[in-house]
Amino acid sequence: MDSKQEYLMKLQVLEQEANQLGEQIKLVEQQINELSILKVNLEKLEKAGEEEIFAELGKGIFVKAKLKKSDLLIDVGSKVLVPKSYNQIKDVIKNQTSKSEQVRVEVGKRIEQINTELNRLIEEADKSQNQESQNKSSGKESQIKENKTKESKIVVKKKGK
To answer: Which of 28, 58, 72, 73 is an S-S bond match for 81, by CB 3.0 to 4.6 Å?
Structure first.
């Protein structure tokens, strides 16, 4: 495999990884945004007290419900619901947001590493291409000099006859 193909393959692999990481960052940012909205809604709900609200059942279907402060439940996995206080749920949201932000930072660092590697590969490819161009042009120049030398020898021989 020649070096141009190797460079192209490395560039493609790094580009694909960068694109995947970019998509991952979008998902993490979306999750952070949703957690932020959840936190604001939870604070509004806490201030509302015991009154009627519209609770979403899913897919845009709502039911009118009477809110009781003790009605807060959190899914801890496998659809197991555990009662929690407002403060406990705020802590869960804070922890999830913190973890998501850490993931975003780590993914961002990896993208920076990929960009550095891509730039290095591009510079190497440019240097390699410049060397090939110089070698070809210096090869042509020496061939031209050789041809001129041969021509001048021929001219000298003709004059010398």
So the answer is: 73
Q: What is the DSSP string of 132-146?
A: HHHHHHHHHHHHHHH
Dump pLDDT digits (tens) for 64-107. 888 776 668 889 899 899 999 889 999 999 999 999 999 999 99
4 within some domain: no
Domain count, the chain: 1
Whole-angstrom distance, CA of residue 156 vs CA of residue 150: 10
Locus of tokens 């990481």:
21
Say which CATH number the domain at 108 has. Answer: 1.10.287.370
End-to-end CA distance of the chain: 55
Burial class (CB in 10 A: 0-12, 13-18, 19+), 13: exposed
H or E stretch covering 66: strand 61-66
Q: Residue 108 and residue 59: Cα distance in Å, rounded?
A: 34
